[in-house]
Amino acid sequence: MTDSADIELIESLRLRFALASSTEQLQKLVTGLLVPLLDKFDIAGAAVRPKIIGLLGQINKKLKGHPEVILPTISLLDSAFGKNESGFAQGFRLMYILMALEHAAESDLIAAIPLLLGGIHTRPASQHANLVASLFTALWRCSLLSEDHMREFKLANDSQKAEVLVTLARDLFLFKTIVANADSGAPPVAMGLCADRQKTLTNDLKAPWASDSSVLQKLKLQLVHVVGSGVAFPTEMQPQIHEQRMLALLCASCDAYFQEVADRGKDALKRMRPVDLESPTLVRAIFVMFLGGTQSENINDIRLPVTAAVRLKLLGYLGRSLLAAGSYPQWARVVSESLFSVGSTAKLRQHGMSFLLWAISKAPTDQIIQASSTSLDLIQRSLSESASSSAATSLSDDILRGSAYLALGTLARRVPAFTQNNLEHLQEMFEAFATETTGVRLSIQEGLLAMLPAYDSRKMTEMIREQLLMLLQKQLESTIYQARYCALRYAISAFPFSEINARWLCILGLADTRPEIQQLARSGLAIQPSTILDHSSNLPDLREVIVFIRQKAGRIVDGSSILSSSAKPQAGATSLQVYGSMLDFFRSLLLARGVAAIKEKDGLVVDDSDLEFVNGCSALASELQRKSMRVSLAYLGGQSDTLDSFVLPWLEVAGAGLSDAQLSNPEILSKSLMYVLEVLSLGPREAALLFFDKRELLFMRLASHSFEVQLLVAQVQSVVYAVKLLADMQSGDGASLSFWNHSVAGELDKLIANAQDPTQPKLLDSKQGSIVMLGHILYGLWAAQMVLGKSWAELGLAPLSSTLMDAQCVIIDGVAAAASSTTHLTIAVAWCIAAGEVSKTGYAGDAQQNLAAQTMAIGTSMLKGDSTPRVYDAALTLVSDIVLGNPDMGVDLVDTLATAVGSVTKKQLDMHFKTGEALASALGRFSCTLVTMNWVFPFEPEAVYGDRKFGACVSGIDELLKTITTKLAKSSNVQERQAAAIWTLTLVQSCPGLDALDSWLARLHACMSMLLSDRSELTQEVASRALGLIYNMGDASLREDMVYSLISLFGGGTNGSSRRPGVDGAVGNVQQALQRHIQSNEPLLEQESLGQTPDGHSVNTTYKSIMSLASDMQNPSLVYQFMQLATHTAMWNSRCGAAYGVANIIEQARGAIQPYMETMIPKLYRYTFDSSPQTQTAMKSIWNALLGPGSSRTTTTAPEDELPTNGANVVERHWDAILEECLTSMGQREWKTRESGCNALAGAVSGADPELVVPYLDRIWKMSFRVMDDIKSSVRESGLKMCQSLATATVTWCTPQSTPSTSRDKQAQAVIDVVVPFLVDKGVVSDAEDVRNFSMGLLLKLCKASGRYLEPFVPTITEKLIESLSDMESQAANYMTFHAGGSGISQDQLESLRLGAVKSSPMMQGVETILEYLTPSTMEALVPRLQNIIRHGLGLPARAGCARTVVVLCVKNTELVRPFASALVKAISGSLAENSALQRQAWAAAIGYMAPMLSPAMVRNLLKHLEKIYFDKYESDIRGVSGQVLEQLAQKCPERLCENPSGPGTTSFVLFGCWDSSEVVANGFQSAWQEYILGLGGALIEEQLSELLRQPLEHISGENWPRRIQSAKVLAEIARMVERNARMGNVGRPDGSTSSDSNLIPFSVKTLAQMALPELVKASQGRRWPGKEYVLGALVDVCAVCGRALAADADSDMQTLSVTVCDILLREMQHGEISYRREAIKHYCTLVERMELDVYSKVSGTLLEMVEQMNAAGLRQNASGNTMDIDDDDDDVAMKRPQQLMLISTAIRALQLTLAKSHSLKSDEAAKTADVLRCAAQTGVWNVRVASLECLAELLERCVSMEFGNSTNGQAFPIDIAPILDVVRLSAAEGKYVSVRTAALKTLGATLSVIRAASSSNNADARVAQWDLEAGDVRELFLKDPVPSISDRAKELC
Predict the structure, then answer these.
(1) Closest by alpha carbon to 904, among 964, 1014, 979?
(2) What is the pLDDT of residue 1632?
(3) Are 1320 and 1356 in contact (CB under 8 A)?
(4) Which residues contact 811 (CB under 8 A, 6 or more apart)?
């Protein structure tokens, strides 16, 4: 076509548009021509285009004048996106698209959305503003999109569309409305956006959402709804889309202006699946949002950072991303912005610092090194700025600063080089303790400990190391304990153990007042066994240490404090405490160095437990300890010329307490003296000589209040005197004789004098010390003399000898005096100690034997007498020492002590051990370790005693053993049997190499075997220990005999199985020995006493178990090794019992047991968990002794051919055997075996590798549940513990880790595959309640913890959890269900409580958790299970839980439910009629959630079913479920209701239900009805009126009265609806027609009249029934509506029908109950009011008759206004009185209304009516009077209007006015009721009208004048009325 033709065409179109005057014409032109015109523009020539533009401008003007014109939306969109043009044509298209969307229908809006989304990403940026405006317009103008609509968008198939939508949504969520302000210049840009993006979003601020907050809110809600939908964005979409969704919803959740948007955003975020925080695109996007856009040439294109609220949430994601931590420098910028940006908040700063800590902790090493300077700057700036803030310190500031300090510490740990040789940061951290609050100090401490690995003194320079030590020592003086703690940690960790300065700081820490610091200091000083055995070079050099501590100790001795005076009270350190700690540490170093040297030289093999003494402070108690000390002291002494340099300093330091009054504390002094004594005893003799000159200091300590100090002082003096004497005599120095004969003798004389002084309280300690020292010095001097081998005279020391003899006599006399009761207790003890020391070498002089016998007699008397424990102990020591010096008296000692043993009480059991020690010491002499360990002299005892006195006292030993075997062991006295066992043990323990014991071993074995069955546990244990030692002392043959004799005893003694072949003779010899020495005439073992406790009640199976274990090993000889290792008695752990350890036999036991380990370990392991505490403890002792503590669960393994030791994973090496043993034991008949097997299995499983457990897991659970239901309570408890342990392990194994691991996933899945089916199939359904409860608890834990591992079991677990809701419901709830009435609680309340418990129950929570892992395949398996529960589930909780499960599924997994929605709804519909109201409501809610997923046919079937339920259950509350379902449908998917306006269950049924008699039932229907009205509007009445009438007309004439009432109410409502619709239809019609000349409105009226009126008339006739008045009301309403509308219809018989209705009402008001008649009259009033009816003549008679009945009924009002009755005694009449009065007043009201509509009133009728009303107004009650007066006024006015009397005189007026005036006067005087006076005034006004009318007549007579005068008088009464409204109205009448 040519341009001229195109121009001609355009001109014609212009003319057509110009001539279009109506909307219809313009609509037709626009629809047909607009799009072709725009398309023409694209191909038109240059001359045509201006014409087209002009035409488009004309069209725009037309459209502005006709806004109702709808543009072709979809056509415009197709045209716009079908081409790629730009320019004018495309601009016009986009403009018209926006205009079209502003007026488009909702269907077009929804259809436009996907087209706009697809067009935005394909169009240039210049068009985006219009397109985005169009998209947003479509979104905000339509209602919330349904799932079907969102599914039609097909975003899953077009990721670009999805990305466009999500990105636009995110940006809009950041936008806020902009208030227009002409003076503000450019509008502000929202945070997170750039200026250009904001213009795009708001169409350059022209869009309504740019300024209208309500529009913006609606648009945001729509976008949240769409973006948060799993339907629009299914899971299978690209992860990047879901990441952008998450960011968009995150922005929505932070909306500060619209709370609803924020709440919905939060909910949508919760429903989203977690995104991958390690996604590069997500992390990059978060950084961009947080930091804003990068630099650009266009400033309007740079995005601003998001708001602080959004930043806060973004930090939450960054703080969990490893990729974010590795993105430097972005994370540094984020931290900087969080901490220091202008809009930052306290929470944002806290999270920013937390993110910095995360980044520092998780960033790659090379990156954190690069970022160290930046990180440090951020931390320091944060600390400095928060410190300089003037605001008061708050909790948020504390958190921020604490995190900063922790970050600083972590940075130092990650970058050690950064702080290695720079103490500045460390010093700042320590100094911060003093300036920061208490809450921050803990973080500083954590930070310091975090940076601790960065400081290693070995990598520091010497200067830095010294500075660090100074800093740490300074911090130890701090008053803040965290500073002291951290300083000590640095001293321990930063320096090697060999650094003495660091150890010195630990010594200072021991003096701290805080227990945790003291404990830390001890650990820093503790010397580890590995250091001694493997790394002895790490020990400090002893010589360097002694120099160091001498310097420190010198400051103490000089009085200068080690710590500053200001620090002492705060740190709690004192010189005394530091001094003691210093001594302990150096002494430990001495022992450690000695052990290391011995190991290196001699190849010593020791265990860790053998080296515990190194860190102890007790006296040396073993040969190894003494030898270690001796070696170390020898090292210190070295060459003779170095003695003064090293040994003497240690001696001086240790002895500093003797000369310093500050160190006179008894505890410190005793420690000092003990260490001095060790040096003097084990060191070189020169040390004792050097110390001799300090003896005066020792004399000064004699008066100490501590007896221990006095003894140590005496022992030191004894050593130094003995060594000095030896040295002087061996040197041959004659000058020394004088010294000894005079000076020393003088010193002894002073001691003798002090000892003989009268006892005084003040001198008591001094005298005691003098006595003790005197005895020890004498012992030392005599020992030295015996070493010299010469007499005193030969030595030239006769004077000294004389003094010694005098001292000896004094001591003997003192002991004799001590035996009497007159001597003070402490003095008596001192004399005994001194006498014992003197007796050790034998008495001097010719009377030696006599003195010994005399002293022995004295000691014996003290033992037999009533001595105190202290005196008894001292006497025991005395007699022991006497025999030590006089071996011939050993037999006497045995006899004496054996006699005294029976007097020991239960509380004095220690005396048995002390007596045993005394006997072993005295008889074993220097073959006894007790004697050798107490030897204090630096020369050997052989040199003192010689061969004769050095050996053991054989005769005494024989006597002792004879006494034990023949007397004590068989005694009936428990104390004597205990003594037999303890003495035997003491002897064999302390004298292991004594030859005299060999011949007694068999008999001792027999005795101890017998005592194993003693009632005393102590006796049993001691006998057990002794047996083990005896066994080791025997030769091979004897050991074999011992084994079988012991087995024979426990097995019966004669059973051949207990003998071994070939040794019958040996066994027989043993049996004969037993009979000869023990049994006599008594049985060997009493069966009833075997294994019984002292009270004889409980059975002790320890030894039976031990022998059973040995028998299982097929080597009975192991029983002795086991006995040696087993102990459990509390007494055994006491002070005395502890001396008898088993360290010396462990190695032997290990060697003997090694071949049987493979067989023994499983059984031994089980026995360590035995039910008997005794057996358990014994077996644990065996286990720990053989395998080492902790061997049951370690990480290393030993070779198979070696014996497992400490550190070997014994349990894992023997896993299969142990598991088999435990599982087999759990099924045994004996309950103890079952219990021990269960406990052992629990111990084995705890912490085990799941790969080891899985093969046995099914059996383990089976047996665990079996013992959990055991008949024995203790076994059940063990089973519960076992199950708890296994459950904990199972949850741990099956918890997914943050870092995926294929191997771990396989292990977890393997465990789940076993555990879950077992729990579901056997545990949850178990008959045992405990098993059920436990299984359910574990199942819930797995649901919460196991996550994806449970996917295959989701259906099974869900079903069981739902069913368990009923199974596990409390029995109390079931009881209350049947007894709710008697408990004062309704059934509904009880059910509400039960359902509330279901919702909050752990099972329901487990269901909600497990459903997160539902997949399509498992959903298919789950639905049949849910259907089964819905149809056949037992119990309210299970069914309620099932309903809730369906709801949860619909909310969280809509797409999974959709294919099965119909099946589930069908199942639920069959359960809607159950009895529980709340359960019905739950089912209704479930249907509501699934309704949007149903097909239209299924919805129709559901509605039909609801109608059936309603009418089938009409007499029950169950019918309410139909309304509940409909209410849910109205809320969840209203469009589905609107799709079904007709048919069963639809509009007619819903409307019918709205008028149900139950308000609760009706509410649900009303909600659904509102949706019908909103969806269909007026068309519902016009199109569905017949459908609406279906239900009520069906039931209006039925037999069911409630349905008839309900039908009547519905018909009345329909009538009102028709009337409203008709009224609305009369307004605003385009043609201006009304209902009178239009057939549209009357059609509905005619339909109503034709269908409803006949049925209502029919229903109104016949007999009366309760509720019939509602039918009358509906009849009146319908009649009124139809009558008014059809009044002008000539074909209508409405007038006749109205009269018929009036007749019906007239009939009904005359009969029936008063209330019914009154309702009939009221309906009549309604009919008269709404219709033009003149029926006064017809109804007046009836109504007046009712009024006249007032007099007949005797109703009157007295003067006071109260009602009177002539028959007051009739109660029935009195009850009916109010109803009668209301009936009369209503009748008068009906009469008044009838008068108002009457057009023909006869005179006689008027007169009669006036008389009746006047009478009622005069005598009736107030309401009757008011009605009568008002009706009277109406009557008078009607008479005036009908012109009665106008043509005649007053006599012709039908009503006599005078009586009426009398009534008015009477009423005017009424003082009680204002309403009466008001009605009377109205009547007066009508009367005056009559009078005026009569007066105006030409025939007025005197009667009228009289009326006028009377009326004036009455008016005067009203003028005086106190009520203003009445008086004012009266004035108007004038």
Answers:
(1) 979
(2) 37
(3) yes
(4) 755, 771, 774, 775, 778, 831, 834, 835, 838
Helix axes 643-654, 685-692, angle to 10 degrees: 60
The string over 18-28, giving b where at least 16 C-beta atoms fall within 10 Å of a residue's C-beta and e elsewhere, is eebeeeeebbe
Domain ranges of the chain: 908-941+951-1060, 1351-1494, 1498-1576, 1734-1933
- Does 1351-1494 match 908-941+951-1060 at the fold level? no
Contacts (Cβ under 8 Å, ≥6 apart) of 908 = 869
Q: Which of 6-15, 110-119, 582-591 has the lowest mean pLDDT?
A: 6-15
CA pair distance 533, 492, nearest whole angstrom: 20
Residues of 765-800 as b/e, b for ≥16 C-beta within 10 angstroms?
bbbbbbbbbbbbbbbbbbbbbbbbeeebeebbbebb
CA dihedral 644, 647, 648, 653 (to 10 degrees): 150
Distance CA(1360)–CA(1339), nearest Å, equals: 10
| CA–CA distance, 155 with 237 (Å, rounded to integer) | 9
SS3 sequence of 1886-1916:
HHHHHHHHHHCCCCCCHHHHHHHHHHHHHHH
The yes-or-no verdict on residue 248 having pLDDT over 90 is yes
pTM score of the predicted model? 0.60
Planar angle of CA 358, 360, 362, nearest 5 degrees:
65
Q: What is the DSSP string of 1612-1636?
A: HHHHHHHHHHHHHHTSS-TT---TT
For residues 1570 and 1553, the answer to whether their CB atoms sit within 8 Å is no
Residue 1568 has pLDDT above 80, yes or no: no
Mean pLDDT across the chain, nearest whole number?
A: 77
Q: Supply the DSSP string of 1713-1739, one letter for each residue.
A: -HHHHHHHHHHHHHHHHHS----HHHH
Residues linked to residue 1208 through DSSP beta bridges, in sequence order: 1196
From the number of C-beta atoms within 10 Å of its C-beta (0-12, 13-18, 19+), residue 31 rates as: middle
Contact indicator for 104, 112 with CB cutoff of 8 Å = yes
Taking CA 1345 as the corner, what is the angle to CA 1340 and CA 1348, rounded to the nearest 5 degrees?
105
DSSP of 536-547, one letter per residue? GGGSPPHHHHHH
Q: Which among 635, 603, 609, 637 is positioned nearest to 622, based on CA atoms?
A: 609
pLDDT band at 1897 (very low <50, low <70, confident <90, very high): low
Helix intervals (H) in 558-661:
568-571, 575-602, 623-637, 643-654, 656-659
Q: Compute the distance between CA of residue 1372 and CA of residue 1394 in angstroms, rounded to an integer.
A: 11
Phi–psi pair at 194, nearest 5 degrees: -110, 170
Q: Which CATH number is 1734-1933's, of 3.40.50, 1.20.120, 1.25.40, 1.25.10? A: 1.25.10
Token pair in block for residue 977? 């049997």
Q: Smallest Cα–Cα separation from 1448: which of 1422, 1424, 1477, 1428?
A: 1422
Residues 1666-1693 have pLDDT tens digits of 888 888 888 888 888 787 655 555 455 5
State yes or no: cis peptide before 1416, omega within 30 of 0. no
Q: CA end-to-end span of the chain, whole Å?
A: 92
CATH number listed for the domain at residues 908-941+951-1060:
1.25.10
The pLDDT value recorded for residue 359 is 92
Distance CA 1380, CA 1393 (A): 12
Sequence-distant contacts of 1508-1513: CB under 8 A, at least 24 apart: 1508/1544, 1509/1472, 1509/1473, 1510/1549, 1510/1553, 1512/1473, 1513/1473
Mean pLDDT is lowest, of 1253-1257, 1778-1782, 1839-1843, 1878-1882, for 1839-1843
> Which CATH topology does 1351-1494 take?
1.25.40
Q: Going by C-beta distance under 8 Å and a sequence separation of 6 or more, which residues neighbour residue 1360?
A: 1320, 1324, 1339
Residues whose CB falls within 8 Å of the CB of residue 1784, separated by 6 or more in sequence, listed in order: 1746, 1747, 1749, 1750, 1755, 1816, 1820, 1824, 1827
